[in-house]
Design a protein that fits this description.
Number of domains of chain A: 1
Number of helices of chain B: 6
Largest sheet of chain B: none
Shape of chain A: globular
Structural class of chain A: mainly alpha
Number of domains of chain B: 1
Radius of gyration of chain A: 17 Å
Number of strands of chain A: 0
Structural class of chain B: mainly alpha
Order of helices and strands of chain B: HHHHHH
Shape of chain B: globular
Helix content of chain B: 55-70%
Strand content of chain A: under 5%
Largest interface: A-B, 112 and 118 residues
Helix content of chain A: over 70%
Number of helices of chain A: 6
Order of helices and strands of chain A: HHHHHH
Number of strands of chain B: 0
Oligomer: heterodimer
Largest sheet of chain A: none
Chain lengths: 144, 141
Amino acid sequence: MDIHNFTPFSALAGGILIGLSAVFLLLSSGRIAGISGLVQGALINESIQKRGQCILFLGGLIGGALLYRMSPGAIPSITIEAPMMVLVIGGILTGFGTSLGSGCTSGHGICGLARKSTRSLVATIAFMTAGIATVYFLRHILGA
Amino acid sequence: MLRSICILFSGLVFGLGLCISQMVNPVKVLGFLDIAGKWDPSLAFVMIGALLAATPGFFFVLKRHAPMFANNFPTLNESDIDSRLIIGGLIFGCGWGLVGLCPGPAIASIAYGLPSSLIFVAALVAGVSLANSFTRALRKF
């Protein structure tokens, strides 16, 4: 196995913050920190109040990323390599799939697994497998 | 008011965590998913860190009768492992593998001001709406 760009400590530290955030959100407001669910909640059919809560959290997400970018020693940029067409298709699949499957990396992968939910374990295995298969297909079969 | 502050604070910490861990960076995510190539196992540690904090945290929080600033905890679907769950997960995984952004990092990535992330978020929102219409249509049968 060929290991590259391994950054276990920052990954672990960031992961702990994500986990603590999810715990604090549940403790304070009784909401699950599943981002796809919050996006859905911000878009449709909940009460104005609940919709506001979703928007507030998502705004905080962007604010947290801005805070990070302004702090000393931050990695200043990210790299999105996908071309326009792939971005659109990837975005639609991500939105559609997470809605249909009621959760994403945070909702199933973190909050669900933390509650030892079998449903979330099944969902996590499904999206991990599909993600790995897609990258394998793109990089090692298509050679993109 | 207090609840709103707590929600905003949770969002800020979550966004910070996504950036510190570099989960927000698609190159890192795709490196993690590329187990047959130049594999970058970092993101497994994001998951481990998050679960180390959230597993005991959820355990104790859910022992309470209610959250601090809300009437009750959400009722969650515990049992149904149906085709929607699995097909949804598989479709999401394909999108994730194509670009390297899942919903949380996609929203947080807006802070980096790249047109690509705005296009992705717009498509994500379209996908969510599409799924809602699709589920409504399914219910009619």
